[in-house]
């Protein structure tokens, strides 16, 4: 059983079964079973569209939310930052665990592992590029200040005293 906590400290179970898959397909138009299709971009859509992801997660936990009296809007307000990251992992791992074939489960887990590594590498590259850009801006600003103070001293030195 995979779980996550929202930002209100509520714990949600992301178990995937036929009822959940049917509910999401009928109400949200998302086919969780498509993750085994080679041409599926469902995982990429989840990573790039947090609204689609959180709506899908809400449909997964809807019976629990109804029992706890948590509306769609309240659930959405409690989903940001680490809660989304943790929920994403719990849901994707639960989808993988749904499949009866050990090979399909293993294949999906491998794909998830590869996706996580690729995303982490992309974040590292962005962070490195951002660090380099910030460093260049700071250097340029410092050089500009240094050039300005040098010019100011020359100007005041060449201005005759009154």
In short:
With 162 residues, this protein is mainly α. The chain has helices at residues 18-28, 42-48, 50-68, 72-77, 82-98, 102-158; strands at 3-5, 11-13.
Protein described:
This protein is mainly alpha-helical. It has 2 domains: 3-98, no CATH class; 102-156. 72% of the residues lie in helices and 4% in strands. It contains 6 helices and 2 strands; from the N terminus they run ββαααααα. The protein has helices at residues 18-28, 42-48, 50-68, 72-77, 82-98, 102-158, and strands at residues 3-5, 11-13. Strands 1-2 form a two-stranded antiparallel sheet. The protein starts with a strand and ends with a helix. The model has no long low-confidence stretch (mean pLDDT 83).
Topology:
Blueprint (H helix, E strand, L loop, with lengths): L2 E3 L5 E3 L4 H11 L13 H7 L1 H19 L3 H6 L4 H17 L3 H57 L4
Antiparallel strand pairs: 1-2
Question: What is the spatial order of strands in the main beta sheet?
Answer: 1-2
Structural class: mainly alpha
Helix content: over 70%
Report the span from N to C terminus: 84 Å
Pattern of helices and strands: EEHHHHHH
> Strand count, sense and closure of the main sheet?
2 strands, antiparallel
Total domain units = 2
Number of helical segments with 4 or more residues: 6
Shape: elongated
SS elements, strand count? 2
Q: Which regions contain 5 or more consecutive residues with pLDDT less than 50?
A: none
Radius of gyration: 26 Å
Strand content: under 5%
Task: Report mean pLDDT, rounded to a whole number.
Answer: 83
